[in-house]
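Message: Study each token:
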Amino acid sequence: MKLRSLDLNQFRCFDALRTELPTDIGIFHGDNAQGKTSILEAICVLLRLQSPRTSTVADCTRFQHDSFAIGGALDTDDTYRLRMQYRESGRKLYVDGEAAKRTGDYLRHSALVVWMANDDLALIRGGGDGRRRYLDFMATQLFHDYRPALKAYEKALRSRNYLLKRDARPAWDQIDAYTTILHEQGLIVTQRRRELVGALDPLSSTAQFEISGKNGEDLQINYAHASGEGDDLAAELASRRDEEARKRRTLAGPHLDDLELMLNGMPAAKFASEGQQRTVALSLKLAQTQLFIRIRQQPPILLIDDVFGELDPTRRNYLMATWPADSQKLITTTNLDWLGEDFASARRMRVSAGRVE
């Protein structure tokens, strides 16, 4: 699948933008704060309905505006025109001009996406929230039941936490109604995450070994779930009722899960060098790419934000050698010093003050 064009209206720094996109390799270059990353972000929001930079797409609205719109032509076996309109009252999704009744109907016409960015180091150094987002972004693209289960879980979690905070003495009869939802939907989330991590582990381990020059670096990723023994979240929450009454929040469940990243048996966040951590981050994203191809039999669109200037030649060459030849690669960079003969056919587009030349 290839995105041939992109139309923006009131998105981030853009008043309006219409541009054709190369279907092989495209490089958006220019100074910082000109809109390069926002172009890739808009593509991700259009295709996956979520931003890799913020937890809510409302933040993507241009300053002093309350709505935005994104559209584009996507080539698959057919050509579809996708459009998303967002405003404070809600969003509207269109496929070939017709309103999509359900989110799933829209996403079935869309493409797979892998987002790579210079700040992917946060996957190793940051808190668990970023690693959960990494898993969720993959799982929603691979498993049809994941997104509905995750949304239902998050909605029930907000309600349950509200009830825990509302009263000095928790109304457990009301709280337990949401506990049941957390257990049922959380079981789907937990099982899918475990399946995902099991498939990612050997792929990321191989990538780490190869990028590091086959010098014995052993990357292992483990799923640290927070749903209790046997994934019985209801029983786990029941056993922690007194603690929840004191702390007034839900103390177990997939919203507290994490991804353990171990390099040579040691936590990568504490004991790996910066170069090793960058390799771990790159390995995780390359494993995601390979997993999409293995499960869905189609290459994802690669959105690569300001990565190449930070990669040394070894990592840069491995990335280029392993990315799918027939995938669309859209890249941002502040300089072109690293550009070599491998990018001779790439289309270069300069971004300046919200304009693309």
